[in-house]
Amino acid sequence: MSPAPERPLGGRRDGRLQIGRVAELCGLSLRTVRYYEEQGLIAPDARSEGGFRLYTDEQVQRLLLIKQMKPLGFTVAEMRELLDARDLMRAGGEGAAEAGERLGAYAADAAARCEELRERLGRAEEFAAALRAETAASAPIT
């Protein structure tokens, strides 16, 4: 009897990763990866003989980019447009310059959203500090 063939390290099959490993690497749930697939933000590169979704390293990077957009409040439609513009710009050729301009607009939008989040965080920290001060002032002296 011959030994069982070695399984690729890290869930890899022919240089591709199974969905579970991709989810783990990206810090996402399987359901979230599938949702992004349903929304057209990512597509598996292939499927294994057993029907498992298989992804490339490039698709993992795409998911990580999507994950960065999420806390900034980008909608799925905005994410899709940004990713499409990024793909078009990287491919070069017709439409690449316009895609680059769209990416520039998204970069400015992301910066504005970051500033808004910083302002909200500052207000939240002030509120938390006020609560701590009030709690400390009203604590019984022992």
Q: Kindly report the average pLDDT value.
A: 89
> What is the CATH topology assignment of the largest domain?
Multidrug-efflux Transporter Regulator, Chain: A, Domain 2
Main sheet properties: 4 strands, antiparallel
Number of strands: 4
Which structural category fits the helices and strands? alpha+beta
Helix content: 55-70%
Cα shape: flat
In the CATH hierarchy, the architecture of the largest domain is Orthogonal Bundle
Q: Can I get a quick summary?
A:
By secondary structure, the protein is an alpha+beta fold. It is built from 5 helices and 4 strands, in the order ββααββααα.
List the helices and strands and how they pair.
Elements: E1 12-13, E2 16-18, H1 19-26, H2 30-38, E3 46-47, E4 53-55, H3 57-69, H4 76-91, H5 96-138
Could you walk me through the main structural features you see in this protein, from its secondary elements to its overall organization?
With 142 residues, the protein is of the alpha+beta class. The chain has two domains: 10-72, Multidrug-efflux Transporter Regulator, Chain: A, Domain 2, CATH 1.10.1660.10; 73-135, no CATH class. 63% of the residues lie in helices and 7% in strands. The chain contains five helices and four strands; from the N terminus they run E-E-H-H-E-E-H-H-H. A four-stranded antiparallel beta sheet has the order 1-2-4-3. Helix 4 crosses helix 5. The protein is flat and about 70 Å long. The protein starts with 11 loop residues before the first strand and ends with a helix. The model is unreliable at 1-9 (pLDDT under 50).
